[in-house]
């Protein structure tokens, strides 16, 4: 959008509301709007009629709204972290489920095959139906425990 503004492909940027334009905080928001102004591109909020590039108190209002948007982003992050903590306390397993648990004999075979054929971890993961990271970790343990 800023590239197009610098090329003067439009005259006015119309955004739904300031928090949909950016949630990066006061400084970043003001810098974006200043860049638009330096490109001679006006701006206007669709849902906030007091936000446009011709008001006398535009910088004060924009600073206040940008700060509120940043605080909302922080609150959302806090809520997500609280929800994850609550789920863990309830005993829920988070993340992707394991693809498959290998038996000790399969682990030994996986390690031997890696050493013998120099197969890639992706090839081993596909063959044994495990993740690439798991294949890597299982082969790495062998190296770490070698005398």
Folded structure, characterized:
By secondary structure, the chain is mainly alpha-helical. 61% of the residues lie in helices and 5% in strands. Strands 1-2 form a two-stranded parallel ribbon. The radius of gyration is 27 Å and the shape is elongated. Residues 143-147 have low confidence and may be disordered.
Question: Kindly state the mean pLDDT as a whole number?
Answer: 83
Strand content: 5-15%
The secondary-structure element order is HEHHEHHHH
Helix fraction bin: 55-70%
By secondary-structure content and strand pairing, the structural class works out as mainly alpha
The shape is elongated
Please report the distance between the alpha carbons of the first and last residues: 59 Å
Biggest sheet details: 2 strands, parallel
Main attributes of the structure:
single chain; 147 residues; mainly alpha; two-stranded parallel ribbon; 61% helix; disordered C terminus
Q: Which helices and strands appear, and what pairs or packs with what?
A:
Layout: H1 2-6, E1 12-15, H2 18-21, H3 26-38, E2 42-45, H4 58-89, H5 104-117, H6 121-128, H7 132-145
Helix pairs in contact: 3-4, 5-7, 6-7
């Amino acid at each position: 959008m800023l590239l197009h503004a610098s090329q003067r492909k439009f005259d006015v940027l119309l955004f739904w509301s300031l928090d949909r334009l950016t949630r990066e905080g006061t400084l970043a928001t003001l810098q974006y709007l200043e860049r638009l102004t330096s490109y001679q591109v006006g701006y206007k909020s669709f849902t906030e009629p007091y936000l446009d590039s011709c008001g006398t108190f535009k910088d004060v209002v924009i600073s206040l709204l940008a700060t509120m948007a940043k605080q909302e982003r922080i609150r959302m992050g806090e809520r997500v972290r609280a929800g994850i903590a609550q789920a863990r306390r309830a005993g829920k397993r988070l993340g992707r489920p394991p693809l498959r648990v290998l038996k000790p004999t399969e682990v030994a075979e996986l390690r031997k095959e890696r050493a013998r054929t120099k197969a890639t971890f992706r090839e081993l993961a596909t063959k044994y139906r495990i993740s690439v990271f798991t294949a890597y970790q299982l082969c790495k343990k062998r190296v770490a425990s070698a005398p």
